[in-house]
């Protein structure tokens, strides 16, 4: 996949603040695209270790020195820390005019970078729509990841697109005013899937306890047991079917209008864990709304 107009951006001196899961993964990807990560910041022992492992030739420097060395400054800090970091950088004037300053926050656009843009920097929001665990798979996945891109002007969009395409990702334009909605959609799709599957595994472990066959193990609350092997192909198929067929992927008792089965589920889950039962009820209600289930299902869910 080429860059816009077939033009590759000049090789850039990249600085990363900070050496977390996202920042170091992007640093490796940018170096593979022949940019050079000249400095990064790292405070915790964990982040220093990660920087040494992923970016062994990159010195760890104070934040203002990282900024001073950079032509592309990547701000890969948690959303809650971004505004104060930008304010601090602007106050020290450590970011040179003309520096490309890109943050990786999903919920923020370029407005949060205004203090640096006023000093002549090029503001970009480049958010990888991916979950990061800290493992090597993070870097591999970047090649198939979409990036939510917001810029202040067409020049900014061209730079952002080029950078994303160079590391094998797909740039997706997100309007400044829609960043929060964009981020909410991604959180709903990723974080809440983890909660739903974890709840399902908890219930399945309880249902299967003491019934293991042929050396099967439940493995307590840790992944890798029979509960995970039962759920895995089912959950993967449901996700793939939804991405391919949308609403048509809905199956099960709610979609069929089987109020008796739904009531049984709520009772069994309530005996195991009332909070889990309430989570099931909330998701089942939304499923009933989407599938236009009969009134009998809504009556069960309202009890």
3D architecture notes:
Residues 4-128 form the Putative oxidoreductase/dehydrogenase Rossmann-like domain. This is DUF2520 domain-containing protein. Residues 145-286 form the DUF2520 domain. The structure is a single chain. With 303 residues, the protein is α/β, with parallel strands linked by helices. The protein folds into 2 domains: 4-174, 3-Layer(aba) Sandwich (Rossmann fold), CATH 3.40.50.720; 182-302. 52% of the residues lie in helices and 12% in strands. A 7-stranded mixed β-sheet has the order 2-1-3-4-5-6-7, sandwiched between helices.
Q: Which helices and strands appear, and what pairs or packs with what?
A:
Layout: E1 13-17, H1 21-32, E2 36-41, H2 45-54, H3 63-69, E3 72-75, H4 79-92, E4 100-103, H5 114-117, E5 122-128, H6 137-141, E6 146-151, H7 154-166, E7 170-173, H8 179-208, H9 226-245, H10 253-256, H11 259-272, H12 274-291, H13 295-302
What's a concise summary of this model?
Residues 4-128 form the Putative oxidoreductase/dehydrogenase Rossmann-like domain. InterPro entries: 6-PGluconate_DH-like_C_sf, DUF2520, NAD(P)-bd_dom_sf, OxRdtase/DH_put_Rossmann_dom, TM1727-like_C_sf. The chain has 303 residues and is α/β, with parallel strands linked by helices.
What is the highest CATH level, the class of the largest domain? Alpha Beta
Q: Kindly provide the radius of gyration, computed on alpha-carbon positions and rounded to a whole number of angstroms.
A: 24 Å
Assembly type of the shown chains?
Answer: single chain
Strand order of the largest sheet: 2-1-3-4-5-6-7
Query: How many domains, in number, for the residues?
Result: 2
Organism: Mycolicibacterium komossense
InterPro entries: 6-PGluconate_DH-like_C_sf, DUF2520, NAD(P)-bd_dom_sf, OxRdtase/DH_put_Rossmann_dom, TM1727-like_C_sf
Domain DUF2520: 145-286
Domain Putative oxidoreductase/dehydrogenase Rossmann-like: 4-128
């Amino acid at each position: 996949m080429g860059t816009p107009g077939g033009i590759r951006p000049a090789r850039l001196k990249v600085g990363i603040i900070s050496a977390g899961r996202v920042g170091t993964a992007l640093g490796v990807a940018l170096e593979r695209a022949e940019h050079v990560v000249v400095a990064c910041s790292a405070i915790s022992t964990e982040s220093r270790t990660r920087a040494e492992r992923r970016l062994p030739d990159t010195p760890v420097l104070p934040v203002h020195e990282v900024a001073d060395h950079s032509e592309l400054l990547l701000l890969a800090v948690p959303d809650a820390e971004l505004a104060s970091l930008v304010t601090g950088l602007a106050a020290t004037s450590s970011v040179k005019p003309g520096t490309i300053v890109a943050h990786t926050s999903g919920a923020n656009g370029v407005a949060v970078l205004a203090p640096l843009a006023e000093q002549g920097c090029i503001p970009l929001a480049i958010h990888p729509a991916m979950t990061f665990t800290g493992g090597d798979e993070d870097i591999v996945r970047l090649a198939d990841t979409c990036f939510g891109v917001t810029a202040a002007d067409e020049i900014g969009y061209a730079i952002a697109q080029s950078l994303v395409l160079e590391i094998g990702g797909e740039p997706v334009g997100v309007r400044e005013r829609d960043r929060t909605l964009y981020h909410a959609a991604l959180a709903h799709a990723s974080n809440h899937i983890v909660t739903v599957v974890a709840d399902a595994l908890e219930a399945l472990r309880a249902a299967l306890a003491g019934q293991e066959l042929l050396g099967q193990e439940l493995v307590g609350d840790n992944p890798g047991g029979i509960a995970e092997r039962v759920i895995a192909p089912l959950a993967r198929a449901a996700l793939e079917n939804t991405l391919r067929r949308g609403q048509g992927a809905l199956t099960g008792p709610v979609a069929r209008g089987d109020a008796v089965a739904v009531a049984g589920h709520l009772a069994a889950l309530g005996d195991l864990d009332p909070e889990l039962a309430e989570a099931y009820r909330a998701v089942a209600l939304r499923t009933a709304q989407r599938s236009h289930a009969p009134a009998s299902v809504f009556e069960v869910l309202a009890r």
